[in-house]
Design a protein that fits this description.
Layout (H helix, E strand, L loop, with lengths): L12 E9 L2 E9 L5 E7 L6 E2 L12 E2 L1 E5 L8 H11 L4 E2 L7 E2 L4 E3 L15 H13 L18 E2 L2 E2 L1 E8 L5 E9 L13 H6 L7 H17 L7 E10 L3 H18 L11 E10 L10 H21 L3 E3 L2 E3 L2 H5 L3
Parallel strand pairs: 6-9, 14-15
Antiparallel strand pairs: 1-2, 2-6, 3-5, 3-15, 4-9, 7-8, 10-11, 12-13, 13-14, 16-17
Helix pairs in contact: 1-2, 5-6
């Protein structure tokens, strides 16, 4: 049974740590790999990324597998959350063996951040190592194949998409070959997720699920968005983050290709994208429990196409699951508040 989430890739678990109240509107999300890790790669397209340990994922470099990926709020400050995940993994004896003792490990924990500083009112409220530990512990405590909380949780707590509230979303697909491909995204985009002329989500236009709102509803939404744009300070940095995963047996080079083509899924749902003040980053994970059909390199194509598709669907789900925020740090209506759950 699938739950249309990243956790449909057997062995992957997701945990959120959410910080709210007292000027806080931020958090951390951790994707925990199965014991033994997962082949990992990354593709960074935004001009203003905030990342950690991404060089280790280059196919030319020695590290083959990782045990966790961290997505976090707090801009570059929030990357401290990864140290809490590293400490937890070390306690479990998980990481790259660097000595004769089984406990001599160095966990490689790639991480990327979104800019949400001050969204709750306090610029200094941001995730730290304790937040990262809470998120990885939540992931470890979750059951196999569990549903994943979406919307304003974890790294999506303070996320915005244009002038709309953003958040976390996830989706999955099972190919004819039986291979599963899935994605989890944090939508915190400088670009817009909805067509300004119609109010339809770009990602739903791509999927062919077009349900146009009534003209009066759209006009009221446009007025509301103009009001909050005038009130909110323009964000200096925004980002869409994603983890795209599969149970296929991929090399690091193939995983990197999957991360790259998954960016197409962002471009279908967010416009514009990959700008100088974006930090758009896609991580790829491959657990390797299924063999690709066929003997040639083109056997990967179905996985690549599905990766982009599930990223688009995950972005739509993130925006639809988000709840509105109106506080000292600004006001961001949700898509559902403006247009209803059509």
């Amino acid at each position: 049974m699938t739950v249309d989430a990243l956790t449909d890739v057997a062995g992957l678990r997701v945990g959120h740590a959410t910080l709210g109240g007292d000027g806080r509107l931020t958090g951390t999300t951790v994707v925990l790999a199965p014991e033994g890790g997962a082949v990992a790669a990354v593709d960074v397209r935004g001009g203003g990324p905030g990342t950690k340990e991404t060089d280790a994922l280059d196919p030319r470099n020695v590290v083959q597998k990782v045990d966790a990926v961290v997505l976090t709020g707090g801009s570059a400050y929030g990357l401290d959350a990864a140290s809490g995940v590293m400490a937890w993994l070390e306690e479990q004896g998980r990481g790259v063996r660097v000595g004769p003792d089984p406990g001599h490990v160095v966990p490689v924990v790639p991480a990327a951040c979104v800019f949400d500083l001050g969204r709750g009112g306090d610029f200094r409220a941001r995730p730290d190592a304790a937040t990262g530990r809470a998120a990885v512990e939540a992931a470890a405590a979750s059951r196999r194949g569990a549903a994943v909380y979406e919307g304003c949780v974890g790294a999506g707590t303070g996320a915005v998409a244009g002038q709309l509230k953003g958040g976390v979303g996830t989706a999955s697909a099972v190919l004819d070959s039986g291979i599963t491909v899935a994605a989890l995204v944090v939508v915190n985009a400088a670009g817009s997720v909805l067509d300004p002329d119609t109010g339809v989500l770009y990602g739903e236009l791509f999927q062919g699920r077009v349900r146009y709102p009534e003209e009066g509803v759209h006009e009221a939404a446009r007025r509301r968005l103009a009001e909050v744009a005038a009130r909110n300070a323009p964000p200096p940095l925004n980002t869409t983050l994603a983890v795209v995963a599969t149970d296929a047996d991929l090399t690091k080079a193939q995983a990197q290709k999957m991360a790259g083509t998954a960016h197409d899924g962002i471009a279908r749902a967010v416009r514009p994208v990959h700008l100088l003040h974006d930090g758009d980053t896609v991580f790829a994970l491959a657990t390797g429990t299924r063999t690709l059909d066929g003997t040639g390199p083109l056997a990967l194509n179905d996985v690549l196409a599905a990766g982009a598709d599930v990223v688009t669907r995950a972005i739509v789900r993130a925006v639809r699951a988000a709840e509105p925020v109106d506080g000292p740090g600004g006001a961001w209506p949700s898509y559902g508040e403006l247009y209803g759950q059509r």
